[in-house]
Amino acid sequence: INAEYMGIFCDIIVTCPVMARSVLLVLCGLPGAGKSTLVRELLASSLRERPHRVTVVSYDEVETELRQSLFARRGPAEGAAAFSSELWHLARSLALQRCEQVLAAAEPPDNSPLVVIVDDNMYYRSMRSRLAQLARQQRASFAVCFVDTPLEECLRRNASRPAPVAEEVIRRMAARMEPPDGRQCHWEQHSIVVTPSTPLAIAAVWGCVSLARAAGPAVLPPAAATREGPTPASTSALHKLDLALRATMSRLLAEHTELRDASKSRTVNAMRREVLAAAGSALLEVEVGDAPPAPAVSLHMDVEGFRSLFCSRVESLLLHQPGS
Measuring CA to CA, how many Å separate 291 from each of 94, 112, 284, 295, 314? Predict the structure, then answer.
């Protein structure tokens, strides 16, 4: 769709019986394509003129947080050397989990939609498929913006960065890039391509977001093997712990009526997220440490131990209630 018309659609679509309360907008493109610059421009325009509440989840930032956690524990030299595919997979798992948490908590105080922008390369369609499935699970709409910058320009920009990506990695990504195609994959029907010369690019992206929201929750992509490889044991362990913590939280809320008001329930949910994050850091420390990981720890996380920690924090909250 022409960019000028996209901008118009963004303004005229205001009501729809199936309109979603939130939109998951996935950016894809090579390193140096200009994705992060586009994010900043979208944020600025949302503050100036668009009735959107915007949250950004950057996969690079999540991975950086994990690296810094390692640096704090093991020192810069050992932390850098400790990078592995396990760390990469865990970072992606935590970023996906962060997207889920933001979408799950989406309760607009007014009619302004929540837009969650995912900033990553996402060069395989299977990578985007995971996010489309998440959007569907959370009753959110799904849209994709492909930042299509020429390879040589990406390489030039990347070379000027303080910590550039290896040129061969970018070239390999370019060779494997699978741009969004709504004709081939119905769940990518709300997609837009932005190039350095695209006129009204910001208005066009917001137009795509509005069209996706008006169409309702995302279409569920068919189950398919992901090219990111099998889910690592760390991701499986964290998922099991997350399920256990959610079940425990539901039980505690049912047993203690004083926890059901909005403020207390948010506090309890924040405690759950903190325990899960602590478990992720502990598991990462085990898996990238100097000694070989103990299978009982790395493959079978102490779910009961972390669940007990969560319960003790909630009990402390109850003990400090007024009048208790």
Answer: 24, 51, 13, 12, 34
Residues with pLDDT less than 70, the chain? 1-18, 49-51, 70-86, 107-111, 220-237, 280-302, 305, 319-324
d(CA 199, CA 202): 9
Backbone φ, ψ for residue 40 (5° rounding): -60, -40
- State residue 5's pLDDT score: 38
Q: Which of 276, 284, 275, 274 is nearest to 233 (CA)?
A: 284
Q: Residue 197: phi, psi to the nearest 5?
A: -105, 5
C-alpha–C-alpha distance, residues 324 and 318, integer Å: 8
AA letter at 180: P
Phi and psi based region of residue 264 (left: phi greater than 0; alpha: psi -120 to 50; beta: remaining): alpha
pLDDT digits (tens, 9 = 90+) for 254-276: 888 888 888 888 888 888 888 77
In 3D space, the residue among 87, 67, 90 whose CA is nearest the CA of residue 79 turns out to be 67
Closest by CA to 312, choosing from 287, 278, 285, 281, is 278
* Exposure b/e, 303-313, CB count within 10 A at least 16 = b: beebbebbbeb
